[in-house]
Amino acid sequence: MIEQDLPDQDVADRDVLETDQPLLIAAGLGKSYGRIAACRDVSFSLYPGEVLAIVGESGSGKSTLLQLLSGQLAASAGHVSYRMRDGVTRDLATLGEAERRFLFRTDWGFVHQDPAQGLRMAVSAGANVGERLMAVGWNHYGRIRDTASDWLTRVEIDVARIDDAPRTYSGGMRQRLQIARNLVTEPRLVFMDEPTGGLDVSVQARLLDLLRSLVAELNLAVVIVTHDLAVARLLSHRVMVMKGGRVIETGLTDQVLDDPREPYTQLLVSSILPP
Amino acid sequence: MNAPAYNFAYLDEQTKRMIRRAILKAIAIPGYQVPFASREMPMPYGWGTGGVQVTAAILGPQDVLKVIDQGSDDTTNAISIRKFFARTAGVATTTATDEATVIQTRHRIPETALHENQVLVYQVPIPEPLRFLEPRETETRRMHALAEYGLMHVKLYEDIARFGHIATAYAYPVKVNARYVMDPSPTPKFDNPKMDNCPALQLFGAGREKRIYAIPPYTQVVSLDFEDHPFEPYRFNAPCALCAAENSYLDEIVTDDKGGRMFVCSDTDYCESRQAAGHHGSQSAAPYKEKAQGGSHD
Question: In this predicted structure, what is the pLDDT of residue B156?
C-alpha cells in the first residue's frame, strides 16, 4: 500500500493509535521497607483520557503507590513504563534524572493534598502559574503573564488577584491555583493525592466540578488517590480498591461501588454516612 | 621586614595549595561553585574572609595589590586588608587600578578597564543565586547540575509584576559561559556588562559559605532578562560633582538635613585621576589630594 495515497486514513490510524495504546503501565509493582511491604504486586494500564481512582483506608499503600507511579520513589519490585510524547514507551527507572524531572514539569502534573507543598507560597499567583513555562524556556514576560491570567480565569480565580501571593488565598483558591500551575504546560497525565482533603463540602463540590470539566476538556489521564468514595464516583472511570498494600478489587467505578464483591469493599461502601 | 611569625601572606603553604586547587577547578568550570575548606581569618565573617583567602593564595612577592570597598580605596575595610597584606606578605600596594596586578574588591568593579595581567578578587557574602528562592542546598545543587534555571526567572517575573520593571539593582544574576547561573556578588548591575569578555581573571571567594567560583578571561557573561524587559544597567542621571564624569557609577552623598545631596564617582581612584587630569565638577573644592599609598612598605 502506498501511504501518501491515503493521508486521511494515515492520520486516522495514528489517532486510533494514540488512544489505543496505554499511557502508563504498572507491572508487578511493589515497595517494601525491610520486612514491611507497603505495596505489593500492583499491575494495571492507564489509557489517555482515563481517570483511575485508588481508594482504601489510611495505611493501605495508596500514597506509596502514587509515589512509585510518579517515579518519586524507587520500586523494590516490578516497573512502571510511560509512553513519551514521541510515542516511545519507556521504563521510568531507565530515565535519567534530568529526563525524569523534565517529564515531571512538562508532561505530568502532581496535585498535592496540601497546596503549600505544591505551590511557592511567597511568590505571586502569576509567577506560580508561570514557573513551569519559564522552566521550559519561555522568555517573554507579556506572554507568560497572559497565559497565567488565562489559566486563572479557567480555574475561576479573579484575575485581579494575579499579583497576590497564595498565602493570602483561601484553601479552595489555593487548590485551584495548584491545579492551574500543573496544567499550564498541558500535561497528559496528572497525579492527584487527596485533592479535596481538608476542604469544606461546598468548596469540594466546586473543585470537583472544575476538575471534571478540565479533565474532559483536556483529555487528561488522571490517577487520583482518595479515601472519599464520593470523589471516586464523581471523577473516575475505574476504581482500584487497596488493602494492606494489595489491590483487592478493581473494575468500573459504578460496578465496584454499587456491586462490591470483596467483603472489605462492601464494608467500605457501607461505611459512608448518609447525609 | 615582615613579622617573622607569619608565613608569607598569612596562610600556611598547605592551605594555599588547597585554595589554589579550588581556584583551578573553578577556572576550569566557569561559574561553578567549588567548595573549599575555608579557614578562620583574623577578621569577622562579612568583612571579606573569602576574598582575603583567595588573595593570600594567589599573591606573589612581585604582585602589586589594590583593595577597594564599594569603589573606595580609603574605607576601613579596604585600608585594613591592604595593611594586612603589606605586613604579612610585604607586597607593594597601590590605589591606582592600572598599576595593580591583584585587585581585591567588595561591591564594585573599577571604572578603568582591566587588562590581561590583572586578577580581580571579589568578596562574596552569599554565593548561591537561588538561595532565597530555594532554601535547600541539596536542591539548588541539583538545579545547577541539571541547569534548571526557570526559578531565577520567577524572581525577575516577581520584580516586574510588583514594580513594573526588573527592580533587582545589585547581585543581578548572570549566566556564565552559557551554562551556570552565578551571583556576581553584590555589585551594582551597572557593573555586570564589565564582566562580559573581560581580559582579567575574575575570582570569587565566599569565606563563611566556603565556596570559590571564577570567570576566566574572555568568557561570555550574560545578565538574565526577558525579551520584552531587557537588562538595563542603572546609573543615576547626573555628572560626578567632583570630576564631571558622565559614565561612572555614582554614590549619593547627603550633605545637609535640608535635602542637599551630591553625586560623586564611587570609584575614588577613577575620580581622583580625572581630577588630576584637569576635569572639574560643579562642586570641586580647592585641590587637596591624599598622598597615594604607592610604593613598597618599609
Answer: 93
Kindly state the average pLDDT of the residues A158-168: 94
Instruction: Identify the pLDDT of residue A146.
Output: 96
Name the β-bridge partners of B122: B105, B204
Closest CB from B146, B161, B227 relative to A101: B146
A34 contacts: CB under 8 Å, gap ≥ 6: none
**Order of all β-strands in the sheet with B174-176:** B180-182, B174-176, B221-223
Q: How far is A176 from chain B (nearest CA, A)?
A: 20
In angstroms, the CA A110 to CA A190 distance is 6
Only one residue has cell 497546596, namely: A115
Q: What pLDDT score does A166 carry?
A: 95
Helices (H) and strands (E) in chain B, counts: 7, 12
A132/B contact by beta carbon, under 8 A: yes
User: If we measure between CA atoms, which residue out of B131, B133, B141, B75 comes closest to residue B106?
Assistant: B75
Which among A97, A123, A139 has CB closest to B154? A123
C-alpha cell at A74: 524507587
Given an 8 Å threshold on Cβ–Cβ distance, is B146 in contact with A123?
Answer: no
Question: How many Cα neighbours within 13 Å face the side chain of B35?
Answer: 3
Query: Is it the case that residue A2 has pLDDT exceeding 70?
Result: no
Give yes or no for residue B131 having a pLDDT over 70. yes
Task: Please give the Cα distance from B180 to A179 (Å, whole number).
Answer: 31
**B166: nearest CA partner in chain A:** A141
Q: Chain-wide mean pLDDT for chain B?
A: 91
Look at phi and psi of residue A217 and say left if phi exceeds 0, alpha if psi is from -120 to 50, else beta.
alpha
